[in-house]
Write a structure and sequence with these properties.
Protein name: Chromosome partitioning protein ParB
Number of helices: 14
Organism: Solirubrum puertoriconensis
Helix content: 40-55%
Strand order of the largest sheet: 1-5-3-4-2
Family: Belongs to the ParB family.
GO molecular function: DNA binding
Pfam families: HTH_ParB (PF17762), ParB_C (PF23552), ParB_N (PF02195)
CATH class of the largest domain: Alpha Beta
Shape: flat
Structural class: alpha/beta
Length: 303
C-alpha cells in the first residue's frame, strides 16, 4: 500500500514523520500530546512564541526565502518546544523556522518536545542566539551578560555552556564597559573587535572616544592603534592644528550627510560616504548577513 503524504509539506522531515502513518486515524493521533523527549508533529497554531526570545528583528525577505525552501524541501531540522497544556506548546528554539513554516502554509511542524523551566527557556534561547553566525560582538556581549545576570551563571559555567574558554567570555563582557558611542561603532562595523580591545587598554573614557574618532577619520589599523596606546601618544587633536574650512572641502559635510541619507534609504542599510581632501573617497554599505548582502547586490544589478 502506497504511503500517503500531506500536500505542501515537501520532502523534509515532515514527510518522513507523516509517511509512517498509513491510516487517517493514525495521522490524527500525531496531533495529540506527545511524551517528553520525543519528536512529533505539532499544529503551528498551538505554539506560542518564546517570551525570552532575545531576537526582536527578523529579516522579512530572508523569511520569505526560507518559507519557499520549506515549501519545496520541508522542515529539515525540528524546532524545540515545551508543553504548557493539553494542546498548548511554547517555543524554545526555532523562531525563524516556525515563522517561515506559517508563511509557507504548513498546519503542522515537526518539533522536539522537552521539559524546561523558565530559567532554562531563557538560557536555551540566549545560547541559540549566540550560536548564530551573523551576530556582531556587542550582541554576543549582551547575550553573555544576560546569561550571567539573569541565569546566575559564573563566567566559567558560561564558557562551558557556549563552548568558549573563560578569557574569550571575559573579553566580550569587557566590551560593555566602553562608552556607548564606541559600542555603537562596533555594533555597526565601523570598528573591529581588535580596535575595541585596544581601546579597552586605555583607562580614560574621553581618551577612548578621541582614539575612536581618529580610527574612523584616519582609518587607522588595529596595529597602529596598539602602537599609539603603548607609546602613550596624546590622542586629542593638537590645539594649533589647522582645520580646513567647510567651504574649502571638495565635498561639503552637509552634502555628505544628504548622500548618506539618500543611499541608506535606497539600500535599506547603513551607508557611509567618506570623501578625502584630495577629492577622492569611498562609499561603504553595511550588511547583516549573506542574504542581506545578496539583497543589496540585487539592487545594484541593472533591471
Amino acid at each position: 500500500m502506497a504511503k500517503r503524504r500531506v500536500g505542501g509539506l515537501g520532502r523534509g522531515l515532515n514527510a518522513l514523520i507523516e509517511g509512517s502513518y498509513e491510516k487517517k486515524s493514525e495521522r490524527v493521533s500525531s496531533l495529540v500530546p506527545h511524551p517528553v523527549n520525543s519528536v512529533g508533529l505539532i499544529p503551528t497554531d498551538q505554539i506560542e512564541a518564546n517570551p525570552y526570545q532575545p531576537r526582536t528583528h527578523f529579516d522579512q525577505e530572508a523569511l520569505q526565502e526560507l518559507a519557499e525552501s520549506i515549501r519545496v524541501q520541508g522542515i529539515i531540522q525540528p524546532i524545540t518546544v515545551r508543553q504548557t497544556g493539553p494542546a498548548a506548546y511554547q517555543l524554545i528554539s526555532g523562531e525563524r523556522r516556525l515563522q517561515a513554516s506559517r508563511l509557507a502554509g504548513l498546519e503542522t511542524i515537526p518539533a522536539y518536545i522537552r521539559k524546561a523551566d523558565d530559567q532554562q527557556m531563557l538560557e536555551m534561547a540566549l545560547i541559540e542566539n549566540i550560536q548564530r553566525e551573523n551576530l556582531n560582538a556587542i550582541e554576543i556581549a549582551l547575550s553573555y551578560q544576560r546569561l550571567v545576570s539573569e541565569c546566575n551563571l559564573k563566567q566559567e559555567e558560561l564558557g562551558d555552556r557556549v563552548g568558549k574558554n573563560r578569557s574569550t567570555v571575559t573579553n566580550y563582557l569587557r566590551l560593555l564597559k566602553l562608552p556607548p558611542d564606541i559600542q555603537i561603532g562596533l555594533r555597526d562595523n565601523v570598528i573591529s573587535m581588535g580596535h575595541a580591545r585596544a581601546l579597552l587598554s586605555v583607562e580614560d573614557a574621553q581618551h577612548q572616544l578621541n582614539l575612536f574618532e581618529r580610527i574612523v577619520a584616519e582609518e587607522l589599523s588595529v596595529r597602529r592603534i596598539e602602537q599609539l596606546v603603548r607609546q602613550g601618544v596624546p590622542v586629542a587633536a593638537k590645539p594649533n592644528q589647522a582645520q580646513p574650512a567647510e567651504d574649502a572641502l571638495p565635498v561639503p559635510p552637509a552634502e555628505v550627510k544628504r548622500a548618506e541619507r539618500f543611499l541608506s534609504d535606497r539600500f535599506g542599510s547603513r551607508v557611509q560616504v567618506k570623501p578625502t581632501a584630495q577629492g577622492r573617497g569611498e562609499i561603504r554599505i553595511s550588511f547583516d548577513s549573506a542574504e542581506d548582502m545578496h539583497r543589496i547586490i540585487s539592487i545594484l544589478q541593472p533591471a
